[in-house]
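Dear support,

I submitted the protein below through the web form. The confirmation email said the job was done, but the results page showed an empty box. After a refresh the structure appeared. I'm attaching both so you can tell me whether what I see now is the final result or a partial one.
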Amino acid sequence: MSRSTKYREFIVVRLLIILILALVHGGVYAQTDSLPASPNSETKSDSLTRDTATQVIKDITDTLRVKVSKNAIRSDVSYKAKDSIRFEMQQKNVLMFREAKVNYTSIELNAGFINYGFESNVVTATPIPDTAGLPDQKPSFKDGDQAYQSDTMRYNFKTKKASIKGVYTKLNNDGHLYGKLVKKDTNNVLWIADGQFCPCEDKDAKTLIKTRRIKVIPSKKIVTGAGYLSIGKIPTPLAFPFGLFPNSNKQSSGILIPSYGENAQLGFFLINGGYYQPIGERMDLQLTGDIYSKGSYGFTGISRYNTRYRNNGNVEVKYNTIKNSYREFPDFSETRNFFIKWNHLLDAKAIPNTSFSANVNVGSGSTFRNNFNSSITDYVSNSFNSGINYSKRWDGKPYSLNISANHSQNTQTRDFSVTLPNAAFSLQRINLPLGFLKPKSVAQSLWYEKIGFNLNSAFSNRLNTKETELRFDNARNLSKEFRNGVNHQASLSTSLKAWYIAINPRINYNERWYFDRIYNRYFEESGISENGREYGFYRNYDYGFDLNFSTQVFGMFAFKKGPVNAIRHMMTPSISAFYRPKFDSFITTNSGPNQTPIKYNPYETGIFGSANNMQSGGLNFSLNNNLEMKVRQRSDSAQTFKKIKLLEAFSFNSSYDIFRDSLNWSDIQVQARTVLLEKLSVQYSGAYSAYSFDEETGADRNAALIRTDGRLARLRGANLAINWSFGQIVDQTAGKRKKGEKLRLSHILPSGVPITTNLSYNINFTRLYGRAQDTLITTQSFNAGGDIQLLRTIKIGYTTGYDFVLKELTPTFLNIYWDLNCWELSAGYVPFGNRKSYNIRLNMKSAILKDLKLERRRNLSDQNLLF
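What the results page shows now:
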């Protein structure tokens, strides 16, 4: 059915209903309405005589004989109202009262009163008065994703033009737009007179940009005439001749305004200035630069990417040249640094059974030490690590593949290690198919049916060097320093149980494949001995046996009275017998001075080591303890119990090798950990020797310490770490502080404010024995950090510590953040050290005005005064 046919039927049906009602009741159809007539039109008589009704039928007949006017709209217009709908046939209007709504294609109009002219295609919307006489149900207009609110509105469905008074709308970015008089053209462009723009998420904020003329191009930009920034009704001197603001959810390119300041070592500077450029909808690029008055400079490139259900990540590349002093002075130095950061994550839904991730942090060790424009976290880091991992599993298969690359470096020692690549193939434990040996009369599984086999094969290629050796002109030498090989580890094992004892026998086989090894040769022609590397395929293997026995023993001590109900002690003893045959990998040659015999291990530098050169066997001992307490808790309804862990773990480990000719006992390893008061974590580890020592050299003697000194063991080294993490939400429901009650944070801060505190204490000591070196090497430090919100909008954070050995504070940083609704204030202060400095930044939070800021950043030498 065509649109013109539908239009004719619509007119006929409406007018026939009106005609019937007019003949029966002598008037036009209308719902009972207690509201007054439209404030924009004068209500006329609603009655129709039979003569006029006849004329209406004649008009309808004439209408059906002609074509629909070309000005008629081509889509249906639907409308409704809560109280009543009134038709004015002579004026060709439809009047809608209270919660009126008109819909046309993607346009929706709501208001207290709407007058719709179905011939002129014009709607007029106004509010209605409430019981107090104030305007209620103001017009709201929605066209697609853009919505407006106004005092009055007039809109033409045909021309799509509008005239609006007192408009309000929320922009695509954080911001709200107001205008006294607005006109909307056919391209949905808004022309606003006497407008004001609030660049804040809070529409009631007092920060306003006022201007006489505003042009809003939907999903593109906002253009304004001359204007100024106003805080409430108070104008500020921040004025501008014109304004151009983005108005789109899409990313847009633009200049990044640099920060300025002064550094005592590098001079005056401009940092973090540059350009931002989106690259499609899933990627962007940010290029910034730093420049210092004494000649130093740097560049940073950052790219972020995100493909939904695929992957996401970011790449950051830094390069800087730091010049200390002036070139003409003897203390002049120049260093070039680079650093790469890459984070990547493959979405789990992208490729089933496959994962890929990257966390790369690699570059010059002095990149963040000498550069003033670096974070406090990077500055205090002494080591950096990287990892790239790929793994693949197969459905229904017991094997998997893992490929990775790893890197580590120490910025103090300049040690640098990279493994590229690591490749590992793993076969999960599978039971051997020995069921055919089972007698038919036995229903349960036999022990040999539980024998399992597993295999792990790994290839690794590793370089250990110094950071100073990483140069392009040294690439040939570095390639010779790589160590690589393949390691195969296979085992057969099973699990048995006798009484309360678990028995686990295991056979282990380890084979190494190397592609080079050390040689030591004597050349008779020249009479020279030579050390070097020879290349080929070399195989080195060993195997061994283990038999482990373990069980669990429980002890309970109950209390009939008091808050403690019971104390439970759980012990897990384990004894393991082991044997490793001797596999002599050594080679003896007459390559020493005067052709004397030399014995050496050609695999001593192998990446996976070499086979046992000595026979070993004996027993491994371990004992793990767990201690818990159950306490009574009484309530009005019943008595309950609560478990408290006194010791999560307290273990001893040692071994005895019967094939050693002396010092058969290994060191006793002691480890303990627990949590006190549900907040305080305590961890201890220590190594103890059961042998006495030579008083001159400090070397172990094959004599039990208990016989020579009456002690069971002596300490070699230990570490104690105490960590306290505390977080709370302030609760003032208990009321104000009572007289005589101690002042607490809960009395100062408002309810709901979070407080976090992290405290840690670490002490590590190693004992060196003997008269020549009898000393205790100790490192001891305390660190603290956390944040607190003094008010709901003010947050203070801190990081500090103290080194008890060096007797000085560790790197300390204080910062404050103040949420000022449309604005935000942040300040940071490093009170001492090489990075002694402060920075202050006041900026707008709006994404489109984030470069409207005041910033001060300065390095403080000993002669500078803060502020």
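Response: this is the final, complete result; the empty box was a page-load delay. The first helix runs from residue 3 to 25.
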